[in-house]
Queue: 4 jobs
Job 1
Amino acid sequence: MTAPLTTLRGLDLLAEIQRLKSDRNAIILAHYYQKPEIQDLADFVGDSLDLSRKAAETDAQVIAFCGVRFMAETAKILSPEKTVILPDMDAGCSLEDSCPPDQFKAFREAHPDHIALTYINCSAAVKALSDIIVTSSSAQQILDQIPLDQKIIFGPDRHLGGYLARKTGREMLLWPGVCIVHQAFSETELLKLKAEHPGAPVAAHPECPPHIIEHADHVGSTRSILEYALATPADTLLVATEPHIIHQMEKAAPGKTFIGVPGGDGNCNCNMCPYMALNTLEKLYVALRDLEPRIDLSTQVMDAARLPLERMLQMAGNSVGKGDVGKPRIDNVVEPEDIDPNISGD
């Protein structure tokens, strides 16, 4: 479902979006993977969970989330009293699509001695079936707090799970999902770039497959990659994540050169997220005008999904959105058994 686009000819879209934002007491959030024109008009630009937490702290009545559906759902879970709109409801995610709630529920029931550490890139219904939600920046800190003899399901991203398994030595049962953008990065094209730019470091997201990760000088979340880009003394950086984050890098460090690693044979746009690209200024305007499409979740699902999110914040609240953070520990590990594994989504 997309906000219906009636004729917008002659409208000053930027001015109208600002007017509607004021009229609606709205806040506009943009993920790093959004187009530059959307990033530039947003109130906050950042990682998905960090954006939802920022929005929850404001007195805005409406959240316009320029990202993908699971991100807007997370904003609704953390701000159930607010209206959350998404410019294009078809803005999904290949990781979410790879993990249908009914299949995840059956998988959990087939492995009752495992707890589920679930990457935030999943539906609200799958969050509700999980024990602890993790982000790419908080996952290792949370893993370090789980007893070594506790069996773990990690989903839906097998590359992030595999990276964590290699880094920590923990065996985990991996759900076989992938991000289609990070999966598409070409090792051949990366090696060509490294030859063309000798000495240029590579920053990669842990959703990348191992053949990309093994060439990386830095592996971390989107925010971690951005911070590395600004901190590295190198004047050229090769970036192995969705390339629209380069807009923020160029704004913050205009004297440096940032090069996105291509996907496929180097002649496609497959390193760009097709779901993120569905959001446009026109759709944002119409969504603010009509307050549609909006995120609607049942109270049951929101309450169940909020529990594993709160566990993450208890166990690793100081690391969420901050990249790789070492291995601090806490003594009181949150026990997962009080989640009802039979709760399913809408």
Job 2
Amino acid sequence: MRCWTAGLLIALGAIAGCGPAAAFQCQNDLDCLRGAQQAGVCQAVGYCSFPDDACESGQRFGEFSDAFGDKCVPAEGSGAGAGSDSESDTEAGSSTGFDTLASSGASDSSEPNTTLGATGLTTSPDDTGWDESSSGEGPGTGKQPTESDLVLWIDFEDGPVDRSDYGHEISCSGSCPGTTAGMFGTAGLFGGEHYEVAQDPALDLSGPFTLTVWVRVDGMTALTRSTIFTQEYEAGAMSYDVSAQDLDGDSAYDLVIASNNSGPGLLDQLPDGAWRFLAIRMEDGQQQVFLDGSEISSVSLSPVGSHLAPLHIGGIPGIGFPLIGALDDLRLYSRILSDSDLGVVLDGEPLE
């Protein structure tokens, strides 16, 4: 078998030319690093600034600072007022890809405490992955799916084929992705091509859903963003997006998941050239993310909007951001899978 742009919340607006860049709020100076080259300052208003000699203060807010974006930090300090509108011929703090908000996972007391910092996501010691002992309804339960729960299943054995009962039409962008050895036979090998799954009411992501896929990221283009799964409902506007990015300039890639243009950036979760099993459960804005059976994030996001729109896998038409790597056994369920069900999918088995 982006209208969006990026750092640790996300949007594609500046690149697609259809709206302002997303806001990235910082918690400390460590959130204001641009790769290994430029260190910024987390100002008191909660946005990053970067050195700029054209500003009296020597600091200019980054482009993802909402109303302060690209304005000089007031010379009197970090300031609570708006920055100066003075401009410079020198572009300060330009970045590519998504801007992401480094934040603590918004989980209830029953979930492990997850925190995203400059060195990645840390989890309290009681995070042992999926709980197989739960019963009842919802996550961690043994509720069995109906045939209609599996709304998309691409195993990449025979190219762009949906093996779910829906049999959605899947087309390729120009040429189709190649093939490579996968976790369960053949995987799709992406390097500029992508799949488009035709729009269908069954693919509306506004209800509860679980997305699972094996992912291998082999590299990045100069845009440092690789699309895994997205739904674009109008030019440049995404209802839900999953991508690999290089936010911190190191050798491990970062997992970025956004609902209505914002969501967590999870650092160093995708080692170069390594297969990882990704599972996402989403319902009413409550999102849980698992890698290889262990929960790495539990956050509250903006609920996914209801859109009749195609799904794109491995890239975005017109915008690009191609996946450089491979995917295997991609499944989309229209319900929250139980922990035990996720374990079955991880093993590549069908749910009974």
Job 3
Amino acid sequence: MRVPEFLVARRGRVRLRGIRTAKTTLAAVLAWLAALPLSDDPRPVLAPLTALLVVQLTLYDSLRTGLRRVVSVVAGVLVAVALTEQVDIHWWSLGIAVAGSLVLGRLLRLGPEVAEVPISAMLVLAVGGSDVAASGRVVETLIGAAVGVAVSAFIAPPLYVRPASDAVQSLARAMAELIRRVAREVEGDYTREQAQEWLDAARALGRDIAFADRALERAEVSLRLNPRARDKQHTGPSLRSGLDALERATVAFRGICRSLADRAQGDVPEQVYAEDVRRALSDLLTHIADAIESYGQLVGSEVAGTPEDAALGQALEAASADRSRVFELLRQGERLQGGAWELHGDLAANIDRLLRDIDSEARAKLRLSWPTRARMPRPVSAARSRLRRTMRDQPPP
């Protein structure tokens, strides 16, 4: 059966679009229906309004927003009630209410909901501090917040682990592609302009790192308090440690490019390495690129629960052999004379640092400290296994 195109996300995955819109609409309608018998107002619009604002991207954000909104409304109502018992509403009493509400909201650390405190206070003051208006506002806010959190919790609470995994793997591929480009060009008689372009491109990887970091932050928040995250508690540490390692490797690669650029612009006998060194360095960078890409794939397989580090181990083994060959060539002849040894040292240190950051054995040891995947109930596990077998045995269209 062919899946409609509007349901297909990237890489052929099926994704139901419009879920958040449907959940928000449902929360608003349910809040209205729940508030009708409980509120003295025949049109309890505050309840659906609160539910509309409470439903957020993640369950944790919905719960936090709901709690903050309830506290802000209650605080504003209390300020208004306390003030109306002492004075009538005037311009100066309004100013006192607003200033006091803002100060109270900041003391309570309500964040984006701090403005709701003076808003609630002014709305209650507008009706003379009526007990009915004050209690009605609190009740409708409680109903709307409760309904919004309930809908967020029980109806498809979203997980953003896969987009974060895709972002980390995309960073690894972008970095590997750049390293392969440098490997191809360094084998030839490159110019200082080319070396500077490598350095600029390495610095530009910071944008990919920032994008992956934002995706990972959203994934980490979506895992908190989420009932669907029962068997995915290991994904947060896996993705965070993987991104940190790739970020450090990016800094080390930037150092490699800086060493090559400094050599091309410096006063040394060989502004461009000799052919034998360039060939060995090209092989080394090629295998490093393979290792970086394999590292990203390893992080993705860890998220799926089946770590596959064989390709990374093979690439690192080949890179280690190339590293020894490059370092041996740099110690030959007159290549250590003058100030050249300093550039050799910078290049060697950054190569070692990069290989250490993506070491497969260190990664395997790190996995032992992560939360283990929770075992699913046997009926659920059996059903999933049958579904996988059916999909595997189904002939392609």
Job 4
Amino acid sequence: MKKALLLLVFVLSVLSVFSQNVFDRKVNFEYLRLPLQPIKKSIKNYQAVVVMEYEIENKIRREAFAKIVQDYEKKYVDDMAAYDKSIKDNGAKYAQDMIDYNKKITDPKNANIAKPELVLPVKPEKYVPVDNTYYPKTINTESAAVTYIKLDGYEKGRDNAAMVTVLLKGLQYTEPELKLTEKTKTKDGQQIVEREYWFEYTYKYPVGLKVEAPGSGVLCNEYFDDLNKFISAKSDKYKTESELRAAFNRDKVFSSLEDKLLAENLNYVNNVLNSRFGYTRIKAVEEINLVSSKKMSYSDYELAFASAVTGLNQLSADLNKTQAISNLNAGIAIWEKALEESQPQNKKARINGDVTIATLFNIALIAIYANDFAKAELSLNKILALSIASKREQRKVEQVKAFLRDQQMRYEAWKKVN
């Protein structure tokens, strides 16, 4: 037993001597994200407007309701005229009938004739229709454009400017529908019915984007599916319908929803605008792998880390990233030199399996920022080819590849106009 314990201690001590600790350091930096659909480089300015398309529909609805009111008013006037004429005609007829009656009643033979009665028509009641439509609010479109719409990388101006138009459809909804559930419970030997009342309704606030550029025409003109889907909602629940109706103010609920959705959806559209057409400074946090060991030196990894961090911090300096790429490539070169020692199956090697994978991740990530997408792809595929790559590392490869594809698409689109 004692010999077995001594052997275990010896093995663990040997492993600790040769073990490498792979760890990461988070790096905060900014980079200039390129647009997916660059506007030609001669255009430096933009104008932004917000258009309430729903105002036209509001006007149509209000005019239609005004016509209904007008029709009811005309009907009431016509009914009153008919009523007055009927009063007059019936009164005249009654007067004549009474004259005839008074003449006839003096004759004993007519003693049983019925006395005429004055028949008056029912007076028409005036009905005033009530418009229960919730009309989307009229907003300050100039303020909305200034507050929410900004095309990164461009100046506001009229000369040779791209035109950004944000189209608002306004709040759209279904009328709240009364819902009821009943549960039967037994209490003190008696069955009691418990009820809950609430309203259910749906809503959405579609917003569109149109972008035009001199010499290029319309670059974008669409409403977004994400903003054109009805969202289901419920009110709070109450034990009686009267309590529910007293607490639930439809117009107040819709007004609050409208304000919230307007802000959220304008932010959404502005993000789409800049993803497609803007040059946006993105605050990024990336993890770069380092290695430490008690018996082996990894000073080269510290040098590579320093070069990579210097390059990352230079990314937002200019679009061409000349100095940044030079430093990023210097870091990559050090990691590639280290990989010449790679022995993925030898845990005692300086560049063992864990260090190899960590190094390949470093190269892939930094190569993406250096616009060397082929090298990044190759490094990620090498990780997948290693039998020692874990499921977690394979998932990370797919995440990095998604970022690679996005950055490559942006870079290739940008190169076409530059």
